[in-house]
Structure formats: C-alpha cells, structure tokens
Specification:
two-stranded antiparallel sheet, mainly alpha
Amino acid sequence: MFENSIFGERQYQQRRSDRIMTQLYEQLNQLVTAACSHPPGSAQRQKNLTKIIRLVTKKLWLEHTPYYQDALQQTWIYFCQNICEGKTGNPYDSSRGSVVTWLNFYLKKRLQDFRINTIGQNKRVSSSKGQNGENLDPLNSVAAPPEVPTLLEDVREWVETAAVDSDLRTTHIKGHPEVTCQVLILRRLPPETSWKTLSEEFNVSISTLSSFYQRQCLPRLRKFGESEGYL
C-alpha cells in the first residue's frame, strides 16, 4: 500500500511536470510568432523577445566553467539573429523542437568549441616552450578573424567611441585602473583573447577577470542590446 502510494505520487508529479512544460512550449511558440510578425528592431519585436529570454533563461544548460558566460553571450546573439530571419544560420523551426532545445543545442556546441580551444591552447603553449620555459613560437595562437556579424560591429563601435568620462572607461577592477569595462569587452569580442592570456598580461587572476566581466561588463552589454532592439 505504501509503495503504491509513492508510485502514484510520482506519476502525479510527472504528469504535472509534463503539463507545465507543454504550457511553457506553447507560450514560447506564441511569443515567437508574435515577435516575428513585427519588423527587426521594432519595439513590439523587442518586447516579445525579452519575454522569451526571461522564460528560457532558467531552462538553459548551466555549467561552472570560465568560458560559460562567453558561450552564453554568443547563444543570445545567435538567438536574436536567427529566431526569425536566419541571418547567420537556419531560422528557428518549431516543428523540430522547442526554443529551449534549439538554444541548448547551440549553447552546448559553443561550450564544446571553447573546451577544445582551451585544450589546444594549453598544448600549443606547452609544446612551444623550451627547457627554460621561454616561448619559442613567435606566432603563438594567431587566429584568422572570423566574419563579424552586424551586432558585433555595432557593439565594437559603441565601446570604442565611448566618451572619456563614460562608465565603460571609468569602471575598472579594483587596483587595476588599466582593466576597464571598455578594455575587457573589446578584448573578449571575437576573435576573443583567452582569459589565460589576459590574466598573464594584466597580472590578474582568471577568476577575478571573469567575475568582473560577469558583474560589470555583461549588464552593460545587455543594456546596449536592449536599447538597440537586439534583445
């Protein structure tokens, strides 16, 4: 009797969870349809995309790695560019899965890219050092710049042309006035400089750089994206 009661409770909870997820997916599809019925950059599209982001955020894959926020940032850029028009890839197709599934697939791919890139960088650094640790490779980690989407071009221009007294230029890591939001955002735009390289250059730990980027830089990037209608 007790076991049957537990089994019945589990079935009830599972059915309830399934109903909630079904309702969420239906709501997301309605918001996608509503967003895409308005032109890019319009207030109505921005309003619906913001609702989607709020609903999806807690359902996305989460892991505690130094490059997670960078992968997540690329995922949101991908979302804005391909949820309707498919500017950098195939547009979202609800018949193939939910928005959550679509974004999680992309996010995990980007995390895998960062993971492989990090392993490759460590191997190249290890193989390019002599017995005394000197760097023998003058072209270490030089990568060809990828094609930069319009959003990234807009972000770069916004950061580079920031006024001298703007918070992008004045907000910096404590004790390191040279590491400002402006500097860090520019260095992390594709093709991004690795956290390891930045850590060695500024003599600041990777965790401090990453934490500052998440707390100070990303909120400013999101605010800019919202003001320009990307989010």
